[in-house]
Every structure is written in C-alpha cells, then in structure tokens.
Amino acid sequence: MTKDRFLVLEDGSVYEGYRLGADKETSGEVVFNTSMTGVQEIITDNSYTDQIITFSYPLVGNAGFNIEDNESLKPTTKGVIVREACEYPSNFRNRENLDSFLKRHNIVGISGVDTRSITRKIRDFGVMRGVITSSDNHEKTVKELKSYERRTDQIERVSTKSPYVSTGTGYRVVLLDFGKKENIVRSLNQRNVDVTVVPYDTTAEEILSLNPDGVMLSNGPGDPDDVEVAVKTIQDLIGRVPVFGICLGHQLIALAGGAKSYKMKFGHRGSNQPVKNLATGKIEITSQNHGYAIDAESLKDTDLEVTHVALNDNTVEGIRHKEHPVFSVQYHPEAAAGPHDSSYLFNEFIDAMTEFGGKQNA
After folding, report:
1. pLDDT by residue (tens digit) across 170-207?
2. pLDDT, tens only, 86-140
3. What angle do CA 105, 273, 73 make, to 5 degrees?
4. Is there a binding annotation on residue 66?
5. Which of 184, 226, 306, 361 has a Cα-to-Cα distance from 100 of 20 to 30 A?
6. How many CB atoms are located within 10 Å of the residue 21 CB?
C-alpha cells in the first residue's frame, strides 16, 4: 500500500500517510485525544465540530463500531488521524471497522503517521489548523491555512432544529441543546427523567412554559462567547428552576454569572483526567473534551464559587451558585465508555429538583 495522503499543518509540518475514510480533502483545528477506549463515542461527539482528532493511542478501532454507541446521528468531526487503523476488529458487538465507519459518515482520515510527534507539537505549541489532503502542493496548502477565518456557527449547525421528547415517568427536564451527547439523555432517562430537548436559542420564557422541574445545559463546540443568546437565557432562568450544566453549559453558566472564559493552549481531551472535588477532597477520574476554560480570577466578584479543580493544571472544573440551585462541571459525568466516577452528579441534580419542590409525572 502506497502512502498517498498528507497531513499539512499551518506551521509547515507535513506528515505522509495512508488513505483512510472518505476520499476527499478536509481542513480543521487539529487536536489530540489521549483516550484508549470510546473511539466511536469520541468521533461522534459534536463538540468536535470542525476539528481533526489525533488519537495518541497507537492502535485505533480494535473493538470495532456498532449501531448503539453513537453520541450523535450525524457526526460533524472533520477528520481522524491514527498511527494504525485496525482492519479486523474483535468484539461481539462489532459491525464494521474504522475505515468503513469513516466512509459511511463521510469523514476523512489518515493512518500510518507519527501521532506522538503530532501530539507533542500541539502540546508544545498549541492547537493549529491542518489539512488532510492528497495534494503534494504543500506550500499552497500552508498559505491557504494561514488565511483561514474561524467560523462561529457551529452550535447553530449541530443543535436540534425543533423540540422533541425522550419520555420518562419522573421529573420533567428541558435540555438546551448546544450539540449534546446522546448519553446525557440516556443518563437522565435511566433515572426515569422525562427529557424535552430544545434548540440552543430557546428563550427562558419558552422553556418555563413547558413547566420543567429542571433545566440542563449540554456540551457543544466552539467559543462560549459566540453564544450570547444562551447567556441571556441562563440569566433569566437562575433562581426560577434548578440548572445543571456540562462542558459548554458550564462555561455559559459562568459567563451568565459575570465570569470570563479563555482559549486554552491545547485543551483537555481524554478519559483519564484527574479532578479534585473541593467539598469531599476526593479525586475523580474524568472524561473531558474542551478547548476553553473559565478564568478563576474572574469568578471572585460573582455569585459563583469553584467546586472542582483539575489536578494537572489547576484549571476550574466545576462551579455552583452561592444562593440558587445552579451548578456545573467542565468534564463529562455522562461519559461513555467511561470513566463513571462522576455520574453521581445526575443524582445531585435530581436531589436539587426535589428540594426545589419538583413534582414527578408519576
């Protein structure tokens, strides 16, 4: 097999590899993920909209792909970079390999490249634009990368276009969809919660007209500063209903409270991230996927306080409102394929709805 595909980065680096997935050219922000499992869930996570994922683990796809584990129906990941793509997966749930899965979802990939080199480059110099292409005119490709203008419509593209219900017999929760992972809905349904998923730009009054016992704010792609409409909605909800935010939802709660966010050098992406719960002193191993974080200093003059911190870099991983039942975490308590250390947060959300006087359907 001939190496006939290239990964070109905006700093001029070129990696030569093998054709994988869809037969086209793609460009996006190149990031790395350190997970050893959950490849299907990662690729189908809409928080990766417009991004090219480098898997730092050397063998990808050995458990194969199935029809149950997708986190979205239409993945928006731009590309996948692997050292070795497993051609013959071994798992009783397997239905296809990585190459077939990427082709079916029209996602471009490249294999046979030094993913350790790419990961170290991003870690040392930060995330950067890249192109996966079959063209050998690398000078032209780099020039085009440097003139790229960032898109700000990712959430509009991945959010549901109309409300829908995932039925349960317990509390009623409205999930504001910024590009949600399906396992958020599953995690709520497993606790008998009735979930109504609504578009990202739904107003507070429209949400409250559904008589929810609580509101969830989902994960999603992009810069939280691009979602001003959601910040206004959250401000109007605080004090009127319990609110629980995950990842982008966490960042938006912080912005709604007057704090600020910033773009991280290379972000947190992986299923082995240690976080300290400041209330209990316990360490949770968490799954994370974010390129922005909340400025801890900016929280000091707000009604929000820090509840969790990342042990690797001491960044803010959780906050709560000092007076109202509003809390959030930067990581993913709904993580699939895991870890599940922080799944208790869904139970805390249910407790908050009970204390607020929520009335279950049944």
Report:
1. 999 999 999 999 999 999 999 999 999 999 999 999 99
2. 999 999 999 999 999 999 999 999 999 999 999 999 999 999 999 999 999 999 9
3. 20
4. no
5. 184
6. 25
Give the domain CATH number at 103. 3.50.30.20
Contact partners, residue 137, CB within 8 Å, separation at least 6:
none
In a domain, 362, yes or no: no
- Shared domain for 220 and 200, answered yes or no, is yes
Number of domains in the chain: 2
Asked whether residue 117 falls in the same domain as residue 255, the answer is no
- At 361 the pLDDT is 56
pLDDT digits (tens, 9 = 90+) for 201-228: 999 999 999 999 999 999 999 999 999 9
Residue 97 assigned as binding residue: no
Q: Catalytic site residues?
A: 247, 332, 334
Asked whether residue 23 falls in the same domain as residue 139, the answer is yes
Residue 18 annotated as binding site = no
Q: Are residues 162 and 134 part of one domain? A: no
The secondary structure of 114-160, three-state, reads CHHHHHHHHHHHCCEEEEEECCCCHHHHHHHHHCCCCCCCHHHHHCC
Give Cα 28 to chain centroid, integer Å: 16
User: Can you give the residue range of the structural domain that contains 246?
Assistant: 157-355
- Two structure tokens written together for 202: 């739904």
Same-domain status, 317 and 173: yes
